[in-house]
Structures are given as C-alpha cells and as structure tokens.
Design brief:
Blueprint (H helix, E strand, L loop, with lengths): L15 H9 L15 H5 L18 E2 L10 H17 L24 H8 L6 E4 L2 H12 L8 E5 L11 H8 L4 H4 E4 L11 H10 L4 E7 L11 H9 L4 E5 L18 E4 L13 E5 L1 H4 L21 H4 L22 H14 L4 H20 L10 E3 L12 E5 L4 H10 L2 E2 L1 E3 L3 E4 L8 H37 L8 H4 L1
Parallel strand pairs: 1-11, 3-4, 3-5, 5-6, 6-7
Antiparallel strand pairs: 2-8, 7-8, 9-10, 10-13, 12-13
Helix pairs in contact: 1-15, 3-12, 8-9, 13-15, 14-15
The chain binds pyridoxal-5'-phosphate.
Function: Catalyzes the cleavage of L-kynurenine (L-Kyn) and L-3-hydroxykynurenine (L-3OHKyn) into anthranilic acid (AA) and 3-hydroxyanthranilic acid (3-OHAA), respectively.
Family: Belongs to the kynureninase family.
Cofactor: pyridoxal 5'-phosphate
C-alpha cells in the first residue's frame, strides 16, 4: 500500500476526496476506460436501449461490484464481434481459411489458437497447455473422463461439501462416480468447514483429510477461489501433498482466473478448468478454458501405455490430417488434443477481444491493484460507525490478503439481507447475494475504481442503517404483540383467539 498518499494530504481515509486521490495515483486507472460501465439509468430502465426520456443527470455510473458473477463488457468486444459478422457476411465459408488485411482474429480454422498465448500468461502455463473450448462444467466432465480412472483400490474423490452445485453432489462429481457404478456414499469424501459461518478451510485440515484417505483416493478436485467465502486456496502446497500420495489433482478456477495470479505449470497441477464470464469479461456463458499439464498432454500416441485416454472429437485431432477423414485420431499435442468441436467463432472472438485488454497489463500488476482495492474496501467497512450498537455484519472472507482474491463476502445479521438488497438495488449498487445472509462484493481488478468502493460503502452503510431500524421496529411490534398474548389479553388482530 506504499503508493497510497498519507491520509492527511488528501482528507481522511473515509472521504470521497481520499478515494479520488487513490484513483489519480493509480497507474492502471486507464483500464477502466476499456469497459462499458452501465449508468444508473441503464440499470433502472426496462429496455436495453436508451429512450428519449433519459435525463442527463441519470448518466451517473452505477456502482458495479459484481465481476465475480458477470464481468462487464470490454468496449472492444463490439468492434471484434462486428468484424466477425462482416467476415461471415462478406466471405461466407472462406472466412474459415482466408487471411484478411483487416482481420482482428485468425481465420476461423485457427481461431481457437489465438487465445493461447495471452491466456497462458494469466494462468501461468505454457501456451500448449491451455485450450479454449466448450463450457466449464462440460470441461470438468471431459477432464474427469481422462483423469478420474477409478480402480478397486483408488476410487474416491475428495471435494468440498460447499462446492458450487455444478461441481458437487448431484452434478459433475456425483454423476462421474455413478457413471463408474460406484457408491457415492463411499466414494465422495467431503471437506467440511469447521466454522459453518465463514466456510473457512485451513490448509492443514485439507492435508489431514488427504492423509485419512490417501491410499483409496483417485482424485482431489477443489476450487482455486471458493465461490461463497472468497478463500484463495494454497494450490501449490495442496497439489504437491496430494500428488506425493498418488492422488491426481484438478482445480476449478472459475473464481480464480483473471482474479489472482496462478502458476499452473510450475505448481505441477494435473488439470484445471475455468469460465470466461466472471473476471475474464467475455460475456455470459462464454466459451470456457482448460489446462492440461504438459507431462500429460505431450503424450500423443494413443497406443502407448502412458497415453492419457480421453473422450475425443475431430477438433482434437492433428490439423494436417483432420480433413482427410481417415477415421484415425491423432491427438494434437497439449491441451488442444482435448478439443471436440470447431469452436463457436463469435464466442471465441469475444474471448480474444477481452484478452487483448489483459494484454495491456500483467496479472501481477492487476493483483497488486486488486490487493489495494479489496484492502480499501475492508478498511472502509471495518471503520463504519453504528451509533453504539454492534456492527450488523461480519466479513467472512479470510483477513489474510494472501488467502483471498478480489471478493469480500459479507455475512449480515439475521433478517437484514432482503431490506439491504432492496436499498442497494434502489441506489444501483450491484453485488450478488447468497441467501439467507451473505452478499458478495468484488472490486474487479481491471475496471473498478477506489471511488466505486467508496460509493458502495456509503450506500451499504445507509442500507444497513435502514434495515436495522426497520427490523428493530418490527421486532418491537412483535415483542408487544407476544407480551399481550402472554398475558392472555386480546390484541387488536384477534391473535389470542386464534391461539
Ligand atoms: C465455481 C464454479 N464452478 C462451476 C460453475 C458452473 O459453470 P458453467 O455454468 O459455466 O458450467 C460456476 C458458475 O458460476 C462456478 O462458479
């Protein structure tokens, strides 16, 4: 935080002036200009297009701290997608292979290769270790088809009890276990947070569970950053500990990619998968990404004993022979050998456009900025005053900045969530909620400003104040009502008779 000016030069840390001074001193502040920040009027309007009634004073930006759910749109996505449409419109099928003087992406036959270099820098991989394809859950299934090969001795999967539902019981992991005719009661091993309120999972607890099931576990599948608590797991320590006990290790990086620096190759991770619609800003449901370590992906002879089997498709087969239709699968070396279909070009175009914004900086510089933004959010939340009453919320994300990404999860007192959300919505402060009591607040490293954080905290403070007043008023009414009932008297609603 050394680059931040001392508070007395620019007002107190809790002033707007101070937040603005942090923005002026921020070397990455220009990146915000790359994004479309919805205005308050945009958020409130019931149409996507502006109408004549939009007033000038409604051009004020909303306070968007929801990049953990859906990242905002980079301005250049529109230009890239328009160009794609023009190529399709003017070239038809030739768009697959014709190099154009004004192209923004490779011809569609090679478009899947364009993201590899910029993406590999974000996840810390060799470019051949990443592929852009399909969707996150589909990729987890494809990777488990390769890396979850249960035997009589090793068949368990360790995962967290509070995993995102798509990965969890009933869905990806459970269905994989059932697919192998195994019992989910026996084969699914859950990590349960000791503290149910904050969902924190200490590394030591994860390592102990690995030890407890070391000889019977085939796979460990964990999130890089936990979606609910925002905890950033110690990926290198957990990976090497499990691998040393013969366990294959995969990571769901939905909330980690573009948020925190990763070194998947150096950490020797077996495989990983992620989406591109959160911190990667490529739009809802955008084509996803996966990583396969080179020690697995470099084996390309399907007849060799060390070849990693896979559910193959023609797009994973060698480009030079792909169109010869020889019905012989010759996998491309690396993660690309897991591709099934020709990728959606419009979708890949959005990912490439978004990656070009990441190319304006580095993931390390973004992390530095993110630590400051989230630290500032935490400081402001902790310094709010509550007129003598206790704070009506608790930050459940780890305090240690090394154990979290951009997101802070805020656990509200019982009954406060709905009124708080109502007020935030009224004021166009966009966050997301996990009922019954948590809001997740994520200053995105690429586009949120210190002023966004400051504005959010003002709105949140007022929202909590209102919600507390509202719930204590209704609480008092209930106390009066129940004391009347306890005395056996008649209340104005006739409740005692009903009782
Ligand atoms: C941690 C995690 N895993 C899996 C998913 C499911 O992703 P998809 O719908 O893209 O398959 C999500 C979605 O938000 C997620 O947050």
């Amino acid at each position: 935080m050394s680059s931040q000016p001392p508070p007395n030069e620019t007002g107190t840390r809790s002033s707007l002036q101070y937040a603005q001074s942090l923005d002026s001193a921020d070397p990455l502040r220009h990146l915000r200009e790359e994004f479309i920040i919805p205005s308050k009027a945009d958020i409130k309007r019931r149409t996507a297009t502006k109408d004549a009634a939009t007033k000038n004073d409604e051009a004020e930006p909303c306070t968007y701290l929801c990049g953990n759910s859906l990242g905002l749109q980079p301005k250049r996505v529109s230009e890239y997608v328009q160009r794609y449409l023009r190529v399709w419109g003017s070239k038809g099928v030739f768009g697959h292979f014709t190099e154009l003087e004004d192209q923004l992406t490779s011809p569609w036959l090679d478009i899947g290769d364009d993201p590899k270099v910029p993406l590999s820098k974000i996840v810390g991989a060799q470019s051949s270790e990443v592929a852009v394809m399909a969707s996150l859950t589909a990729n987890l299934h494809l990777l488990m088809a390769s890396f979850y090969r249960p035997t009589k001795e090793r068949y368990k999967i360790i995962l967290e009890r509070k995993a995102f539902p798509s990965d969890h019981a009933c869905y990806a992991v459970e269905s994989q276990i059932l697919h192998h005719n195994l019992s989910i009661d026996d084969a699914m091993i859950f990590l349960d947070p000791t503290e149910s309120r904050n969902h924190y999972l200490p590394t030591s607890q994860i390592l102990s569970l690995i030890d407890a099931h070391a000889s019977s576990t085939a796979l460990l599948l964990l999130p890089g950053v936990q979606f609910y608590s925002g905890q950033f797991f110690d990926i290198p320590t957990i990976t090497s500990y499990a691998q040393a006990r013969g366990i294959t290790v995969g990571w769901d990086l939905a909330h980690a990619t573009g948020n925190v620096p990763l070194k998947l190759h150096d950490w020797n991770v077996d495989f990983a998968a992620w989406c591109h619609y959160k911190y990667m800003n490529a739009g809802p449901g955008a084509i996803a990404g996966l990583f396969v370590h080179s020690r697995h992906g470099s084996k390309t002879d399907p007849t060799a004993a060390d070849f990693v089997p896979r559910l193959a498709g023609w797009w994973g087969s060698d480009k030079s022979s792909r169109f010869r239709m020889e019905n012989r699968f010759v996998p491309i070396e690396g993660a690309a050998g897991w591709q099934l279909s020709n990728p959606s070009a419009i979708d890949a175009t959005a990912v490439i456009a978004s990656l070009s914004v990441f190319e304006m900086t580095s993931i390390e510089a973004l992390r530095e900025r993110s630590l400051k933004l989230t630290g500032y959010l935490e400081d402001l939340l902790n310094s709010l005053s509550w007129d003598g009453r206790s704070k009506p919320f608790e930050i459940i994300t780890p305090k240690n900045a090394g154990e979290r990404g951009a997101q802070l999860s805020v656990h509200l007192e019982d009954g406060l969530l709905e009124p708080v959300l109502e007020y935030l919505e009224e004021e166009c402060a966009v966050v997301d909620e996990r009922r019954p009591s948590v809001i997740r607040v994520a200053p995105a490293p690429l586009y949120n400003s210190f002023e966004d954080v400051w504005r959010f905290v003002q709105i949140f403070h007022a929202a909590c104040g209102k919600a507390v007043a509202q719930t204590s008023r209704s609480g008092k009414e209930q106390v009066v009502a129940s004391s009347v009932l306890a005395e056996g008297g008649k209340d104005s609603h006739g409740w005692s008779e009903i009782k």
